[in-house]
Specification:
The chain has about 325 residues and is of the alpha/beta class. The protein has one domain: Spore Coat Polysaccharide Biosynthesis Protein SpsA, Chain A (Alpha-Beta Complex). It has 12 helices and 10 strands.
Length: about 325
């Protein structure tokens, strides 16, 4: 059995969230054999300094792991630099890493699932990552399934896959457009990922995750998901920098073990349909109306049949 992958936990100025995340990780099977690396971003101003200091103290007192290492940034790096730098740092010394943030509470079977499937697909270059969170949905999904691209709420990857991460959002958008992948990238116009990438390019967000997703998709790679969520996000409570208050993504965490059974590395039709339905349900107003559904039935076939040179012109016209 390969040594368990180290866990990289990224925290900032949310002491109570960090405490909950650490407690859940320590309760996950295999924690006692796991090395934990906690990366704490620095404060942006003096008002945040005391909360950041409290997070550092909580992280330093963490127990239940084989080892705990706390790395506190002297100044604020921002979400993207903190996470990409930390992941890269861990992967300089390990072939694989499990990544959580200070708002991701995991199940008792999370670490076991991650390590089993990191081992199962270690040598498959078409697998980008293993993911623990699954959007709320009612479909009967396979025990595990693949979706093209990558994701960011409780995930794991290998050094060989992370090498495909590309930080240049403009180049990613250009290639997605040139290869006619915008519709796929945006789950048929339901997910808002194209807008998110454009906002990152324009400096309106600091999302590393949308670039990780685009990088993996353009590299022809897939991410593995479980049928029931092994993690939940507790950050949609107004405490984070990039999310408001919402219960739309709340899920009941499953503690049951997930069998490590190899499946073909190809996108699940049922899985993509489930994700698309969830994203569509979150669109406001017309997106959930009969008119909106009719529009999607009309516009999607037109978009698919449209010559690529005209699609590129439409994208340029709609770009900010």
């Amino acid at each position: 059995m390969t040594d368990p992958a180290p866990v990289a936990l990224f925290a900032w100025q949310r002491p109570s969230h960090t405490q909950r995340v650490l407690a859940a990780l320590a309760a996950s099977a295999g924690a006692a054999e796991t090395d934990l690396f906690v990366f704490v971003d620095g404060p942006r101003h003096d008002r945040e300094a005391s909360r950041v200091a409290e997070v550092i103290e909580i992280a330093g007192a963490a127990s239940g792991f084989r080892s705990v290492s706390v790395q506190a940034a002297r100044r604020n790096l921002g979400l993207s630099r903190s996470i990409t730098g930390g992941v890269t740092s861990v992967l300089q010394h390990s072939e694989r890493v499990i990544v959580v943030e200070d708002d991701i509470v995991v199940s008792r079977s999370f670490l076991e699932y991650m390590n089993d499937h990191l081992e199962l697909y270690a040598n498959d270059p078409t697998v980008a990552s293993v993911h623990g969170y699954v959007y709320p949905q009612s479909r009967d999904l396979p025990s595990t399934f693949f979706i093209a691209g990558a994701d960011c709420w409780g995930w794991a990857t290998w050094r060989r896959a992370w090498e495909h991460y590309r930080p240049d959002g403009g180049a990613l958008l250009e290639e997605l457009t040139r290869r006619d992948l915008l519709w796929t990238f945006d789950f048929g116009g339901t997910a808002g990922y194209v807008d998110m990438l454009r906002d990152q390019i324009a400096g309106r967000n600091d999302s590393w995750a949308v670039r990780w997703y685009a990088s993996a998709l353009l590299s022809g790679m897939y991410t593995l998901y479980p049928s029931r969520s092994l993690a939940t996000n507790i950050g949609s409570d107004g405490s984070g920098s990039h999310a408001g208050v919402s219960s739309a993504f709340d899920v009941e965490v499953c503690h049951d073990p997930v069998p490590a059974v190899r499946i073909p590395v190809e996108e699940s039709t049922i899985g993509r349909a489930a994700f698309t339905e969830f994203f569509a349900s979150q669109r406001s107003g017309v997106g959930r109306s009969s008119l909106g559904r009719l529009g999607r039935r009309i516009l999607r076939p037109l978009w698919i049949r449209m010559p690529s040179r005209f699609r590129h012109r439409v994208v340029r016209l709609l770009s900010p």
